[in-house]
Design brief:
The structure holds two protein chains of two kinds. Chain A is an alpha/beta fold. Chain A contains twelve helices and twelve strands. In chain A, helix 2 runs parallel beside helix 4 and helix 10 packs antiparallel against helix 12. In chain B, the strands form four sheets. Chain B has an eight-stranded mixed sheet with strand order 4-5-9-10-11-13-14-17, with helices on one face. A five-stranded mixed sheet of chain B has the order 2-1-3-8-6, with no helix packed on it. The chains are: A alpha/beta, B alpha/beta. At the A-B interface, strand 6, helix 6 and helix 10 of A face strand 15 and helix 11 of B.
């Protein structure tokens, strides 16, 4: 479910009127629940917001799909229109030494073009407003904390700010309470018209019938399919049509082995170069393998060193290995490892 | 305007190049600041915000103005190579660009203390009085993308007229060469263009001039007598890799007089860990990710060695087949 976050109850007034929010039994007040929505009054300032929002995210862990922040913000730029609602792109923050926090948090609204900086105090002078205006066009008191908690809990967030006034000297004469109802109603109307994006369900792989996947194999399968999807612009079913699953099934009776063969085939579709390289090397080391001698190349072929490991049970084995080594085409292997083929 | 906000350091507000830049930008409203670093990179500004919200900073480069280049950086490695920094970031948006992971902001920084940079070049030439010495521009920016605004290029040509043992390389993907075409070509100033096959340019080099327009620019400069460097970098593997490079190299051979080409540098795509993370974040659907990369000898993310060398050798052979001299070809940032 979605969680709506407001700094003050007055900003959420219209939402309380239109929905049937009931208090949630949690250690502190200001958390409410409707049938499909949660609402939090997070308070003013970064610390309070961080505390309350973290508690709510922990309490409802795994149940919150998205956080929507609605609130009032001050303008730091003449290009911003008063009383207009802006979707926020990135949130920045002032820190205790009155410079800026390095980390920033971006909302999921890719069409948003306005940034907001969360300040530690109300901005009551033009000088302070000028300093903050270097980083963002709007100033609030909590958004950065919301972004920070959302990152911690891996919850996507969006933020919509209605612009109350031009931050600076004039803020002192401005009484936000006078327009509280207007702001709240406007935010509610905006919320109602907001195009709520369909939640994308994570794509689940179908897995071909007759193949058993270990957790590791499943991960490799998903990653390879994802890359093949980008490369070939085809879905899982279409990609698997390029592979003779029946032939793989006939090659091995062991489910795990069958899956490994399938993964090899998928990998050769994705990385034909690696597949060619491996085939060429396999041809050259085949006589060694037949002589019970395995060949291990350097990790990712980053150097030309390789290790031979032979098992000799009798003299016949030794003679076979001697012949295989005498005929081993070392220069050809080195050439392949250096891309000369 | 190209820039959302223009910040100018107080100490350079009367600098000749500052005034030229502001004039070229039609004298926008500026914000005077003490130091660029008080604002630039103070916050982590997402890279892709360059699409809609790019700020400009004009200031003085402090600290080391010219730095020694890493090994395998340039042609003729027996000579000392240096790079100088007169700008940070770029207006282009190449999906593989290392600037994504280098700075914490995509905003453009232009340094205007070119006299100081040039004095340092003279000093280094004196240090290396008995040998040739190379200076490279464009390490953290494109040398020409904003050249019509920054207008410093003629002063470097002027300087290098009097530094016969020194060589200067400008690196670009831009076709912004009007200002350069009017200069007198010098034997020791090389204009280098980064080129990739047409299909790849379209896919990966967002906001950059097309391959054909780049070739036209290279051709124009070469025919006017400018020395040309070519960087086939980054080379990205695709299934029709040979065909793509065959087309590209044959176009170069047709349009650029070989005698004007000083070197051809070949470099296979590579990323530091941080840059690769940024590329994945910024361009999750890029075909670059549909490749098998490994952690290589220098901890960079690359193709495996056989593949890298196979690609480099293929392209080298294609160049030779098109009568581009083998001696001019070198592998960049490869063991």
């Amino acid at each position: 479910m979605k969680l709506l976050v407001f700094a003050h109850r007055t900003e959420a007034k219209a939402f309380f009127e239109k929905f049937n929010f009931k208090p949630v039994n949690i250690n502190f007040q200001n958390v409410f629940q409707d049938e499909n929505l949660l609402l939090l009054i997070c308070g003013e300032g970064l610390q309070e917001t961080t505390q309350r929002l973290s508690a709510v995210c922990g309490f409802f862990y795994g149940k919150i799909s998205e956080i929507l922040n609605f609130g009032v913000a001050g303008s730091l730029s003449t290009k911003i229109e008063l009383d207009k609602i802006y979707s926020i792109r990135t949130s920045y923050a002032q820190n205790l030494s009155k410079t800026t926090e390095f980390n920033s948090f971006s909302t999921t609204d890719e069409s948003a073009k306005i940034d907001c900086i969360s300040s530690l105090e109300r901005i009551l002078s033009d000088e302070k407003a000028d300093t903050l205006s270097h980083f963002a066009d709007l100033v609030d008191r909590e958004l950065w904390a919301i972004g920070s908690v959302c990152k911690l809990f891996k919850i996507p967030f969006r933020s919509y700010k209605i612009v109350s006034d031009l931050a600076g000297n004039s803020t002192q004469c401005f009484d936000i309470q006078e327009k509280a109802d207007f702001f709240s109603t406007k935010l509610f109307d905006f919320y109602q018209n907001l195009e709520v994006k369909n939640e994308l369900l994570p794509l689940r792989n179908k897995f071909p019938v007759g193949f058993y996947f270990t957790t590791t194999q499943e991960k490799i399968y998903s990653n390879t399919l994802k890359s093949l999807n980008i490369k070939l612009q085809k879905n899982e079913t279409e990609i698997l049509q390029n592979i003779d699953l029946k032939a793989i099934g006939e090659k091995s009776s062991k489910p795990k082995e069958r899956t490994n063969l399938l993964l090899e085939k998928l990998n050769s579709l994705l990385n034909p170069f690696s597949s060619t390289l491996q085939t060429k090397l396999n041809e050259l080391i085949k006589p060694l393998k037949e002589a019970n001698c395995s060949v291990k190349f350097a990790k990712d072929f980053e150097n030309d060193i390789f290790t031979l490991n032979a098992k000799i049970e009798n003299k016949k084995n030794l003679e076979k290995l001697k012949i295989a080594l005498a005929n081993f085409e070392y220069e050809k292997v080195i050439k392949i490892l250096n891309g000369e083929f | 305007m190209l820039f959302e906000k223009v910040f100018v350091e107080k100490q350079v507000k009367e600098n000749l190049y500052t005034l030229k830049i502001l004039e070229a930008l039609k004298n926008p409203e500026t914000i005077l600041i003490d130091k660029i670093e008080n604002i630039f990179e103070k916050v982590k500004k997402p890279y892709l915000q360059k699409r809609t919200n790019l700020n400009l900073f004009i200031g003085r480069k402090e600290g080391q103005l010219i730095k020694e280049a890493p090994n395998a950086y340039g042609f003729s490695s027996e000579f000392p190579h240096y790079y100088f920094i007169h700008s940070y970031n770029c207006i282009y948006e190449c999906q593989y660009c290392y600037l994504q992971g280098y700075f914490n902001s995509p905003d453009i920084v232009l340094f205007v203390n070119h006299e100081e940079i040039q004095e340092e070049m003279k000093r280094l030439c004196e240090v290396h009085a008995n040998t040739k010495v190379w200076f490279h521009a464009g390490e953290f920016s494109d040398s020409f993308a904003l050249a019509n605004i920054t207008q410093e290029v003629p002063s470097y040509f002027e300087l290098f007229k009097n530094l016969p043992n020194a060589f200067l390389e400008f690196r670009t993907k831009s076709v912004n060469i009007k200002q350069i075409e009017n200069l007198e070509p010098l034997e020791n100033v090389v204009i280098s263009f980064s080129l990739s096959p047409q299909e790849q340019t379209k896919k990966y080099d967002l906001q950059t001039p097309t391959f054909d327009s780049r070739i036209k620019a290279v051709s124009n400069l070469a025919k006017k007598g400018f020395k040309i460097g070519l960087h086939f970098d980054p080379i990205i593997f695709e299934e029709n890799f040979d065909k793509q490079y065959e087309e590209m190299i044959s176009k170069i051979a047709e349009n650029v007089p070989e005698s004007q080409i000083v070197y051809i540098s070949l470099g296979v795509v590579r990323f530091t860990k941080d840059v690769y993370f940024e590329v994945q974040k910024n361009y999750p659907e890029s075909e670059i990710h549909a490749s098998e990369f490994i952690k290589s000898f220098d901890n960079k993310t690359r193709y495996n060695k056989p593949q890298r060398l196979w690609m480099l050798n293929k392209i080298k052979q294609l160049c030779i087949r098109h009568n581009l001299s083998e001696e001019k070809i070198y592998f960049c940032m490869e063991e």
